[in-house]
Amino acid sequence: MTRNPNDAAVDARAAELAAMSEEVLADLGIGIMAYVRKLHPKDMESLFPEVPPLQDNVTLWALLNADGTPILLADSREAAVANAFEHDLEMVSLH
Questions:
Q1: Does 82 score more than 90 pLDDT?
Q2: Any bridge partners for residue 63, and if so which?
Q3: Is 19 a domain residue?
Q4: Of 17, 51, 57, 71, which residue is 20 to 30 A from 27 by alpha carbon distance?
Q5: Pairing relation of β-strands 90-91 and 60-65?
Q6: Cβ within 8 Å of residue 63, ≥6 positions away
Q7: CB 62, CB 72: distance < 8 Å
Q8: Total of domains in the chain
């Protein structure tokens, strides 16, 4: 089997990341990367404590920093994504 020349670089980067502390890993991407998450009313209090209680059938979208801190609460996914692009944040997908 032939080894891809990029494999060594990938292995080196993986070793570098594995050696990082949790604090350093948590700080990667802050202010650079963000993600959008669908929120239900029960999730609001932990991320947005200033939001008054909402009806159970309301769905809102949160734009969150790479470390999970809230940036914005929006009524549509499109509005949250647009805000990320306005602030030059790289969007990442979570699964």
A1: yes
A2: 36, 72
A3: no
A4: 51
A5: unpaired
A6: 34, 35, 36, 70, 71, 72, 73, 74, 80, 81, 83, 84, 89
A7: yes
A8: 1
pTM of the complete model beyond 0.85:
no
Contact predicate 38/79, CB 8 Å: no
Does some domain include residue 13? Answer: no
- Which has more pLDDT, 26 or 58? 58
pLDDT over 70, % of the chain:
76
Question: Is residue 67 assigned to a domain?
Answer: yes
91 close to 84: Cβ distance less than 8 angstroms: yes
Q: What is the CA radius of gyration of the chain?
A: 18
Rounded to an integer, what distance in angstroms lies between the CA atom of residue 50 and that of residue 1? 58
